[in-house]
Amino acid sequence: MPRGDKSAYTDKQKRQAEHIEESERERGASEGTAERIAWATVNKQDGGGKRSGSARKATKKVARKTTAKKASASKATAKKVAKKTAAKKTPAKKAATRKTAAKKAVKKAPAKVPAKKAAAGKATQKSASRSTAAKKAAKTRAAKKAVRKTAAKKAARTRAGS
Asked: Which domain of life is it from (predicted)?
């Protein structure tokens, strides 16, 4: 079958394509463009020509069923894995890990730290459960805040000096 042959399409599909083509021509599309859009629309709706024989239709249905089965099977296994990992950590263990993480964070913070480092440290302590983008945004905000604070101090000194 040569490329562009429409013999595999049913009469109904041909009528649909003709109607779509007329509509596209009314909207101002060129003849070639209207025809291309019409057949692309029919293909999208029906998945191609339907009159190509029973074997092709059967294989299409089987292919759809197998992909649907594979998708549902992969979803089921993902759910099982998620349940197992959630069941492994009991609430008591989760609480214990949170407490130890909080203790480590407290131990890491030294008594006197410059303003920039303290702000960055606070941002990282709070963002333990944040995404990478959120952590980066928080760090940027903290850095900008520190810059503004430094600029305000400098402006206050210049005002006091003059």
From this structure: Bacteria
From CA 20, how far away is CA 46, in angstroms rounded? 14
Q: What is the pLDDT of residues 51-67, one digit of tens each?
A: 766 545 554 555 556 56
Give the DSSP letter string of 99-154: HHHHHHHHHHS-SS--HHHHHHHHHHHHGGGS-HHHHHHHHHHHHHHHHHHHHHHH
Q: Tell me the pTM.
A: 0.34
Nearest alpha carbon to residue 25 among 17, 33, 16: 33
Distance CA 158, CA 160 (A): 5
Instruction: Quick: pLDDT tens for 76-134.
Output: 666 666 666 555 555 555 566 666 666 655 555 555 555 555 555 655 555 457 788 88
Total Cβ atoms within 10 A of residue 125: 15
Please count the helices (runs of H) and the strands (runs of E) in the chain.
6, 0
Q: Do 121 and 143 contact (CB within 8 A), yes or no?
A: no
Residues 6 or more apart in contact with residue 94 via CB below 8 angstroms: none
